[in-house]
Amino acid sequence: MSLLLSIGIYGLEVDVKRCNDEVIAVIKVSHSKAKIRRPKSYPDKFLGIDSYLAHQSRYQRPVLIVTESPHIEEFNVRNLRDFYSNTIVEARPVNGVTGMNILLHLAGLLEAANVFPCDGYYPVIVMNALQEQCSQGDRDTGKYRTRNFIRLWGSQKAYLEHRLEQIEPLIVLCSCTVGDFNLSNGMNAYYEGNRSLFEQRFEMLLKEELQLMPSTDHTSYCFLGCKDLSGLVLGVLDSVFANKNIPIYKTTHPSSWRNRTPTLRKYNNQIRFTFNSEVTD
After folding, report:
1. Checking DSSP bridges between strand 63-67 and strand 120-128, what pairing results, if any?
2. In sequence order, which residues have a C-beta less than 8 Å from that of residue 183 and are 6 or more positions away?
3. pLDDT (mean) for 208-235
4. What pairs with residue 248 in β-bridges?
5. Angle subtended at Cα 70 by Cα 64 and Cα 73, rounded to the nearest 5 degrees
């Protein structure tokens, strides 16, 4: 059953649907060669984190892919039931083309990076940093996605931490987008491709939407490496996994993998931006 969360956007209260985390595939490694396949129960069953935890002793440590929030295709499912509880499920992460791109490229990408310590079966878990449909079902993600994401982040970040702490992945891929958004004139904030200009506009958005101002204190809005949605998520991934020596990499969102071969990049954990609410007398 889908869960709804009420949030305010432009003075209105709207309900946004949620999409739970799922084991979307399994990578079989044999003699250092990797092949990926869907779980045997796919597509009729949803293999959630609870199912994985109940059977994790059968597998090697999982590969974790973290995206920002579910979009339209995640909710385009029919007759889908949870493997563990047999209840109806109304969404699954990276459904559609995005999931197919993962099947096409992920095994080869990780094999080339030599991340697998031994032969065995490695589950692939996809986790949306926010399980809520921040885009509200609109195909133009610039309208609502980033604004809703930063509004929800302060209250939902702890839940992401809780979900991450349940598993001990082999490797983490942060595949979040920068969080492009529309300006007040309808233009795209990242249209010119100027990264510095985009970050200036992103900072303006934080002030307009949440009255957030740069701060030297550690707050709920801590960006690691860059001022964008991926920076927010990387801050949490780093806090949960870095001390466990679990490698964390940045990569592009899987929706773009069909057009461009993905690469793994180390994130800059020395660059940190923090913001807090503006204090007024």
Report:
1. parallel
2. 189, 201
3. 90
4. 172
5. 110
Output the six-digit token pair for 258. 């069909």
Burial class (CB in 10 A: 0-12, 13-18, 19+), 98: buried
CB–CB of 232/69 below 8 Å?
A: no
Q: How confident is the model at residue 278 (pLDDT cuts 50, 70, 90)?
A: low
What whole-number distance in Å separates Cα of residue 89 and Cα of residue 2?
A: 7
Distance, CA of 267 to CA of 270 (rounded, Å): 9
Distance CA 199, CA 189 (A): 9
3-state secondary structure of 59: coil
Phi-psi region of 247 (alpha: psi -120 to 50; beta: other; left: phi over 0): beta
Query: What is the 8-class DSSP label of residue 186?
Result: S
Q: How far apart are the first and last CA of the chain?
A: 45
Residue with tokens 């509880």: 85
> pLDDT higher for 278 or 72?
72
- Number of CB atoms found within 10 A of residue 111's CB: 17
Kindly list the distances between the CA atom of residue 111 and the CA atoms of 61, 107, 119, 167, 265, in Å, as whole numbers in the listed order: 15, 6, 12, 22, 15
Confidence label for 9 from pLDDT (cuts 50, 70 and 90): very low
Looking at the chain, list the stretches that DSSP marks H as alpha helix, in order from N- to C-terminal side: 49-55, 97-112, 141-165, 195-210, 229-241
Of 13-22, 135-144, 194-203, least confident by mean pLDDT is 13-22
From CA 232, how far away is CA 146, in angstroms rounded?
12
- Out of 39-43, 172-176, 181-185, 275-279, give the one with best mean pLDDT: 172-176
For residue 72, give both structure tokens.
């339209």
What token pair was written down for 157?
A: 């970040």
